[in-house]
Amino acid sequence: MTNTVRTKPGSDADRSASPGLTSIDLDVQGMTCASCATRIQKKLNRVDGVQAAVNYATNRAHVLAPHGTTSASLIDVVRAAGYDASLPDPNQDAEAVARAHARGIERRFVFSACIAVPVMLVSMITPLQFPGWQWAALVLTTPVLFWGGWGFHRSAWVNLRHGAFTMDTLISVGTLAAYLWSVYCLVLGSAGTIGMKHPFSLHLMRADSLDAVYFEAACGTITFILLGRWIEARSRSEAGSALRELLKMGAKLVHILDEDGTETTKPIEALQVGQRFVVRPGEKVASDGDVVEGNSAIDAHVITGESVPVEVGPGDHVVGATLNTNGRLVVRATAVGADTQLSQMAHLVEQAQTGKSNAQRLADRIAAVFVPIVIALALAAFGAWLAAGAGAGFAITAGVSVLIISCPCALGLATPTALLAGTGRGAQLGVVIRGPEVLERARAIDTVVMDKTGTITTGEMSVQRVVPAADESGDAVLANAAALEAGSEHPIAEALVAKASEQGRVPEASDFRVVPGRGVRALLDGREGLAGNAALMADRGMRIPSRLADAAETASGQGATVVFVAWAHAVRGVIAVSDELAANSESAVERFHELGLRTVMLTGDNERAANFVAARVGIDEVHAQVLPEQKLSVVDGLRGEGHRVAMVGDGVNDAAALAAADLGIAMGTGTDAAIAAGDLTLMRHDLMLAVDAVALSRSTLRTIRGNLFWAFFYNVCAIPIAAFGLLNPMIAGAAMAFSSVFVVTNSLRLRGFRPTR
């Protein structure tokens, strides 16, 4: 696989291939909410030439910077914003860090809950109150506010020093206001008298100027928000578990085979490209490589999602982290470390998780100005209630409730948690999704264009029939065809060479040249030889004998591809070559139709052969005898008609069409060029996986949009309710925490996505 990722207009995809830019990833510490990520991203993007995406859910910043930009300078920018950053530590256990973070929040929550529960009970249930209970509430609330809620206050202060407001500012200001007002009432007033003067109260509000204490609101709010943050931290850790499991699948040790045949067991980091290593039965393949000795069955489900082991032998390629089931193999390493297919796959998934959808960009812009607006609304509510004569206690309660319930953490979690779960699930199934912009394009497509050979069919061609001219032998026709095609990598050429090799030695040809869309030419014993379609013969002015034309027509009608063979200025024979339909092609086309998609097939084959295959699988539209450059024209033509087009392909000649399509789906078993051009990469040859990719993309985007709708709807409804004095700050804190937990747990449903079969 290649590390290059193409970028479409408006894409947040990895643009590391852009001229003059280098990619730098940073682990960011100290973020507590979405506005923190937005602030850091703004600071980084103010650096000349820098393009940054900061992800709150992964605590990661992905930066594209001009060559010469150092990570140290970027870290300084993050620190200047009031946070900290460092280069990712490859030896650091991300899962352990996530668990430690969750445990830290859990400790604060448990401590706060043990204190907050009795404070809330005694404050809200009159029979439980005793003389001086307010002073006891003050003593108990103080450690909850200043130790349990220390993270909120510290974050608010750090950002305030830098002239910024965050979600933690709302929590800190709200709880401190409730606490300080209560202390003021307790010291200077007759605190404790419960009043219900406001006609719209929900029996949770008090409205006497110096007769109300809100210790239970202060410590209850901190406790509920800590509960939400704890559940959120655990859920975010679960959402990213698929990627962590993917990264842990690689082998830790390797049995390196020295030149003298001695085996030495070393850490995987010691393996270098070109070295041979041994894979025993039951062991993981240490790294990507080619088998040089032995035969075995390889279980590759961790990479491709395919559960059936594949037989391999000398000359076959194997992928690191796959499982050797039964035989001993000697493998020569072709890629190590970050260049292995597993690492590249993990890299693509991780890059996808740092992206943002258009909807999330809107949410980020709103979050950036949201906090100052909320503070203004809280002050307005406070002033309005004072002016209305409701009393200072009630006015403070309304203002504090607005501050606390408005905290839009759910906005910041809506996209990244869904991406974590969706892309992680995709990786488990064998689908690599490049980013949220891909999900948005996947939702809009209405047409799927598919290459035939290697996509709808297996791409494994075999010779079905050889028909020689009247004065030639079939063996001679096949042998010369193989000689002419020996320099080609086309599946048809491979089939001809393989069949001819079974019957004897293949002659040598020279001056090999490809005639695009027609076939090949080369010199046989100094004379020009041709192997290709009828158009190639016509271009050279050669007449096809009726015997051969009839045989070709019969074979084409049966879905075979025909190759005419000519030398010495005459057509000497025709060979029928065909490949089998891939196992799930017919079911996949049916599922595309169920998803409301029109199906189109592109092929260089003749029209009769193309229509035969299309009829078998149920394709709606066929474009036959298409040259590589014409595939791009067909895609552009469909888009010009107003269609949103997805292109599925696996070859070099599909790369341009994949790049031009609204959604490029590349078979991962194909070429690097196709994989680089695709938005979605399928890790095994299975057209049904393309259906799963589209369905998962749509499901992930639906989840993101549902999350964002809930987050916006929650705030739009909650702020007026709080401003009208209908919510106690403690209940507001619980509701705010619930909104974040809802978004995260809703995203986790994607981990249960099941492919349809």
Report on this model:
The chain has 757 residues and is of the alpha+beta class. It has 5 domains: 21-92, Alpha-Beta Plaits; 96-241 and 350-421 and 705-752, no CATH class; 272-335, Calcium-transporting ATPase, cytoplasmic transduction domain A, CATH 2.70.150.10; 431-458 and 581-683, 3-Layer(aba) Sandwich (Rossmann fold); 462-578, Calcium-transporting ATPase, cytoplasmic domain N. The chain is 50% helix and 17% strand. The protein is built from 26 helices and 26 strands. The strands form 5 sheets. The chain has a 7-stranded mixed beta sheet, sandwiched between helices. It has a 6-stranded antiparallel beta sheet with strand order 6-5-7-13-8-11, with no helix packed on it. Helix 11 runs antiparallel to helix 12 (392-405) and helix 12 (392-405) runs parallel beside helix 26 (729-748). The two termini are 28 Å apart. The model is unreliable at 1-17, 190-211 and 670-674 (pLDDT under 50).
Main β-sheet description: 7 strands, mixed
Number of strands: 26
Coarse morphology: elongated
Count of helix runs: 26
Query: Which structural class best describes the helix and strand composition?
Result: alpha+beta
Domains, number: 5
Query: How are the strands of the biggest sheet laid out side by side?
Result: 14-26-25-24-15-22-23
How large is the radius of gyration?
A: 33 Å
Cα(first) to Cα(last) distance is: 28 Å
Low-confidence stretches: 1-17, 190-211, 670-674
Multimeric state: single chain
Mean pLDDT: 79
Residue fraction in strands: 15-25%
Q: Percent range for helical residues? A: 40-55%
